[in-house]
Amino acid sequence: MKRNKIKTSGLVLMIISTIFGFANTTVAYEQMGYASIIWYALAAVFFLLPSSLMFAEYGATFKDAHGGIYSWLAGSIGEEWAFIGTFIWLSSWIIWMTSTASKVWIPFSTTLFGSDKTQSWGILGLSSNQVIGILAIFWILTITWFAVRGMDSIARIASIGGVFTILLNVLFGVASLLILYLSGGHFAQPIHGVTSFIQSPNPQFQSPVTLISFIVYAVFAYAGTESMGGVTDNMDKPEKTFPRGLIISAVVITLGYSLTIFLWGISTNWQKVLGNDQVNLGNITYVLMNNLGYALGEGFHLSAAGSAFLGGLFARFAGLGMFIGYVGSFFVLVYSPLKSFIMGSNPNFWPKRMTRLNKKGMPAFAMWTQAAVVVVIIFFVSFGGSSAQQFYVILTNMGNISTSFPYLFLIAAFPFFKRKQNLDRPFEIYTNRHWTDFIVGVVLFVLAAGIGFTAIAPVLSHDYQTAFWTVIGPIFFGFVAWAFLQYQNRKKTRSRNWIEDPDND
């Protein structure tokens, strides 16, 4: 039976739906206002485009491999480094689950009540963060329980979430342009020349360190292109389709982010709407959507109650769409990256229990191990003691750095990949060795600077709790991967020695 192969247009849509995140634009606007646009553009020029072309070369060369980035790294720098790098990549999904399991209750609350009420959730003397932490633990355990039983059909909810996300973008665009027309071309966030696109209205993003650290947010917003490497064997002429799709989608996503951030200024005045303690990186999307609906109601000269009602509807719609999207994403991501890594990497690296699949084709033991790790992290972060604002900054920074860190491996391995002999390279952009090394150096510098300054910023403000949780993810999981490999290697050596000389104690 002939399978339909993925063509360029299909790949572009896949990449855009995977990478473009509506919530990324609201976070960018909250952190930097219009000034975030230039950082997103710089991240596209110095990270997205050059790295996408590198991933295109990886993907075209290893087009028949099933292990995704593990195959890329193993074919470039060896299996042990590939294992460590891919283990850190897997950890970024674990951190994503950790942060999102806590954040998912905000759209749930918004759908029910029309606004974020999670900060008032307290029971039996527990703070709101602790209550959300317990709910997040329950969420992870419940989804893992269902997923190991092979109920992956529930992941179809993700497609419904995708429809809601498209409708959300359409609603946002139409409402913003209507508000602009009804207000006579007036922007709620005034533009004062070039300064508005350079200087952030957020007092927390004024210093050079915090400005440079914002590039991690931009890199996070572009993360995901490497995940397409796992489907190259399903593409029509992957050596042409993959690079073409990456380049087209990179341009479209960059323009989409820049335009969306700019349009937020039509309805939202930063000082009036965002400059208070009730707004955090967890509820920012719903605050902005509520305000968008309210501003549209004012544009139509509705009463204050009518405008508030419309704002509540907009927030509920955003909350419902995001919640459904999260449900679908969790049912896929709770097993997909883990299964891909375990089944794509060298089976000799793993204990048999980790690689064993149950009757439903799920690595059940590995999934419950993953769930236990996520539960422990959620417990320590949520019961560590911090304000709601700081709590969501910690979760966001954890996710951003953990997502950005694996790119250091992929980019640093590229020169070694280029020096490999006897590889069939159907697609090549980087043909000059010196230019290749220079571009790799620039991308690595951008990544390292963004990660480094994100880690340093809370230290400079003596916020050591945020600093610790910001950097611990990739360091901890990198050490675990290294220690795991050392243990497995020693175990194999002892087993081999015993087989050769069973009488030797």
Describe the structure.
It is a single chain. With 505 residues, the protein is mostly helical. The protein has one domain (8-495): Amino acid/polyamine transporter I. It is 71% helix and 0% strand. The protein is built from 22 helices and no strands. Helix 5 crosses helix 7 (128-147). It starts with 7 loop residues before the first helix and ends in a 5-residue tail after the last helix. The mean pLDDT is 80. It is a multi-pass membrane protein.
What string gives the helices and strands in order? HHHHHHHHHHHHHHHHHHHHHH
Q: What's the CATH superfamily, by name?
A: Amino acid/polyamine transporter I
Bin the strand percentage.
under 5%
What is the CATH architecture annotation?
Up-down Bundle
Radius of gyration using CA atoms only: 23 Å
- Distance between the ends: 57 Å
Give the class from helix and strand content and strand pairing. mainly alpha
Oligomer designation: single chain
CATH topology heading: Amino acid/polyamine transporter I
Which regions contain 5 or more consecutive residues with pLDDT less than 50? none
